[in-house]
Design goal:
This protein is an alpha+beta fold and 216 residues long. The protein has a single domain, classed as Hypothetical Protein Pfu-838710-001 (Beta Barrel). Helices cover 20% and strands 42% of the residues. The radius of gyration is 17 Å and the shape is globular.
Length: 216
């Protein structure tokens, strides 16, 4: 499905949490994730996470947009596939697969990350977005908003904002819901001192490519 993400350097401002709370949907704060990404270009996301090998592919070039509130970014269409190699939910158990992939002495650029994720979900209904109260609820069309406090080895603290659409719908409808959802959510008090710009909008693979290019 379609998604849009922005990255920012530094700690997440308190004003962002105030904005999220004003959306009035229960926040799902998830356990810390330790992941390792293997750099494979800005259209490929390949990582080890929670006992899974995960592959994400951007199937078409990203599409730039500017919303009515002046926020700009890039919408990207990604597909995802996963292969599990050990049971999830056992972070205290040593994971030799993760440790080997995270070994920076081996060939190939890689990035080891720590993520603290907070999610809120809304059901899309006509032109309205209604809070989803129960984690188990799976509406046919849902807008997900994700805040991530991100730590990357040797890069210090970063954070990100992502909005995406999930559910059983066509790609055209998914994109329309995402654009409407971004206008609606950001219009409900996104901090004016935190501009959302196309230059900061990309997926994790794009961020890692940018860092690699800057260090060459």
């Amino acid at each position: 499905m379609f998604e849009t993400r922005w990255f920012f350097q530094g700690e997440m401002p308190r004003a962002v949490w105030t904005w999220l709370a004003a959306l009035e949907s229960p926040a799902d704060t998830q356990p810390t994730r330790h992941e390792v990404y293997l750099k494979s270009g800005d259209q490929v996301g390949l990582k080890i996470s929670r006992g899974n090998l995960e592959l994400k592919l951007r199937t078409t070039p990203g599409e730039a947009f500017t919303l009515s509130g002046g926020w700009s970014g890039v919408v990207e269409l990604w597909t995802k596939q996963e292969w599990q190699y050990r049971p999830d939910g056992v972070p205290s158990v040593p994971d030799p697969v993760f440790d080997q992939f995270a070994n920076s002495a081996l060939r190939g650029a890689r990035f080891r990350t720590q993520k603290d994720r907070t999610l809120v979900k809304f059901q899309s209904q006509d032109d309205r977005f209604l809070p989803v109260k129960e984690k188990s609820d799976k509406p046919n069309s849902a807008l997900l908003i994700e805040l991530v406090a991100l730590s990357v080895a040797d890069r210090g603290p970063w954070w990100s904002l992502q909005l995406e659409v999930v559910g059983d719908m066509s790609l055209d409808v998914s994109k329309q819901v995402l654009m409407k959802g971004m206008d609606w959510a950001l219009g409900r008090g996104w901090p004016k001192e935190l501009p959302l710009r196309k230059a900061d909008s990309m997926g994790y693979p794009g961020l890692f490519e940018r860092w690699s290019s800057a260090s060459d």
